[in-house]
Automatic annotation (TrEMBL):
Protein keywords: Hydrolase
Protein name: Guanosine-5'-triphosphate,3'-diphosphate pyrophosphatase
Domain spans labelled Ppx/GppA phosphatase N-terminal: 26-305
Source species: Thalassotalea castellviae
The UniProt record lists the keyword Glycosyltransferase: no
Domain Ppx/GppA phosphatase C-terminal: 312-485
InterPro entries, alphabetized: ATPase_NBD, GppA/Ppx_hydrolase, Ppx_GppA_C, Ppx_GppA_N, PyroPPase_GppA_Ppx
SUPFAM superfamilies cross-referenced by the UniProt entry: Actin-like ATPase domain (SSF53067), HD-domain/PDEase-like (SSF109604)
Length: 502
């Protein structure tokens, strides 16, 4: 039965009793989207407390219960039906898990649910599906402290799931217990993981996939290293081997020194990396993108009264527009011009209606979100918001292109900002030009201003905008801005001609 205060409370809480860390996430629904208001993470290393008989030590239990006592205080004002608490791999393995769960229930004042490996895999996939925009079949990887989940699915439906009893904490204890980062230790760990993965290669490969995503601690840590180095956060096989070599050169866990790698991840990075290398080699994976969602997000979206018919990106975009009081009519007006110019120019520039095109349309909605802060630097504010806000449905690469569009939609063009991994730099430049011209043409922010006009690109990469001379004379501000755009487009090797006799 739902309590009286649940309807008035927008807060939801998720607690994940993981093998390596305990996590608590507090969220609320805001403008048809989800806003994280608090996150707490504590390194409990529960899996390290399992002995050879799979009995959880009293010391490990004490660490876990102390952490839960901190979480309990935060749950006091959240309705029970808005809370989900789950235990995963280590407590599935522990022979005395019920003893810990009973004590945890008393500390929290709520029920802890022990989920199976298959349930965990399904929830992980749901979390990825609700936070990543992908219509293709995807392969989702999650490496935890004591288990690894592999899932293939499309949209919101997983079609193949598996949970394996291998994880970064248990592998660390088995293959790096001496604290040494030797080639031999890596070889043993990788080979052991491959033996476990071997029976899955044929059934998974027969299904196939178009993209690979992952969101566990190991992959997040590797993505942070890439970002620290100003590289796209796409994890490739070559990058995994590069990190492995650096770790071997560091010689021991105590002496790990890799720029961008946090100290809390160093104890288990070698073991997690070994499992990930084994997965890449077993399934012939070339690269992996980081997902912003996993188990906790899956639990959350399973509980929320969300509209699954609305796409993830549309929910996120709509939420941002509402939050930053965007002029929706003007955004629609700009988008209509973008679609028209794209239709006219796409053939000459060989542009496709792919992900980069979808991001261009999104930039029409979001290019003015920084106006709520101030006008003078609103483009920088818009870029900052896109870089730092929670954006379910947009991965790091998507953010880079979106950020470039909103920061460069008028004024000087910094071509270095167009370097990203969604599309090639030239295509990104062409799309930016379409956005910039559309915004100039919509300068008066009225629906009945623009006349019928023609647009094309000639062999010299000059954009011809065939606007009536009388109309240009009546709208000197727009005409002047189109002329001024010439010097900006020269940065991209383009020019614009508006002197057409119609």
């Amino acid at each position: 039965m739902i309590s009286k205060n649940s309807a008035s409370s927008p807060l939801y809480a998720i607690i994940d009793l993981g093998s390596n860390s305990f996590h608590m996430m507090i969220t609320r629904q805001l403008a048809d989207s989800v806003q994280v208001v608090d996150k707490v993470k504590r390194k409990v290393r529960l899996a390290a407390g399992l002995n050879s008989d799979n009995l959880l030590s009293e010391e490990a239990m004490a660490r876990g219960l102390e952490c839960l006592s901190f979480f309990a205080e935060r749950l006091q004002d959240i309705p029970t039906e808005n809370v989900r608490i789950v235990a995963t791999a280590t407590l599935r393995l522990a022979q005395n898990s019920q003893q810990f769960i009973n004590r945890a229930n008393k500390v929290l004042g709520q029920e802890v649910r022990l989920i199976s490996g298959e349930q965990e895999a399904e929830l992980i996939y749901l979390g990825v599906a609700h936070t990543s925009c992908c219509q293709e079949k995807r392969f989702v990887i999650d490496i935890g402290g004591a288990s690894t989940e592999l899932i293939v699915g499309t949209a919101l439906k997983p079609t193949k799931i598996c949970s394996l009893d291998i994880g970064c904490v248990t592998f660390n204890r088995q293959y790096f217990s001496d604290g040494l980062l030797t080639q031999a230790n890596f070889n043993q760990a990788i080979l052991a993981a491959k033996e476990v993965l071997s029976p899955l290669i044929a059934p998974y490969s027969s299904i196939g996939w178009q993209s690979v995503l992952g969101g566990s601690g190991t992959m997040q840590a590797l993505a942070e290293v890439l970002l620290f180095q100003n590289r796209p956060s796409i994890i490739s096989y070559n990058f995994l081997k590069e990190i492995q070599q650096q770790l071997i050169e560091n010689q021991s866990v105590q002496h790990i020194n890799i720029a961008g790698l946090t100290s809390e991840r160093t104890p288990v990075i070698a073991s997690g990396l070994s499992i990930l290398i084994a997965i890449f080699e077993s399934f012939a994976i070339e690269q992996l993108q980081l997902s912003s969602g996993a188990l906790r997000e899956g639990l959350l979206y399973e509980m929320l009264p969300c509209n699954k018919k609305v796409s993830i990106r549309k929910r996120t975009t709509r939420s941002l527009m509402h939050r930053y009081h965007v002029d929706e009519q003007h955004a629609y007006r700009v988008k209509a011009q973008v679609k028209s110019l794209f239709q006219s120019l796409s053939s000459a520039w060989q542009l496709d209606k792919d992900n980069s095109y979808e991001l261009l349309l999104t930039s029409c909605d979001l290019h003015e979100i920084g106006l709520l802060l101030e006008f003078k630097h609103h483009q920088k504010h818009s870029a900052y918001i896109i870089e730092n806000a929670e954006l379910p449905g947009f991965d790091q690469a998507d953010r880079q292109l979106l950020k470039a569009f909103v920061k460069l939609y008028k004024g000087d063009i910094d071509i270095s900002l167009l370097k990203q991994s969604v599309t090639d730099n030239q295509t990104a430049g062409y799309l930016l030009v379409i956005l910039r011209l559309s915004i100039i043409l919509c300068r008066l922010r009225k629906d009945d201003v623009l006349p019928h006009y023609q647009s094309s690109v000639d062999v010299n990469n000059t954009i011809n905008l065939c606007l009536p001379k009388d109309w240009l004379a009546e709208h000197p501000l727009i005409a002047d801005e189109l002329v001024s755009e010439e010097k900006h487009l020269a940065t991209l090797g383009l020019s614009v001609n508006i002197q057409c006799n119609i």
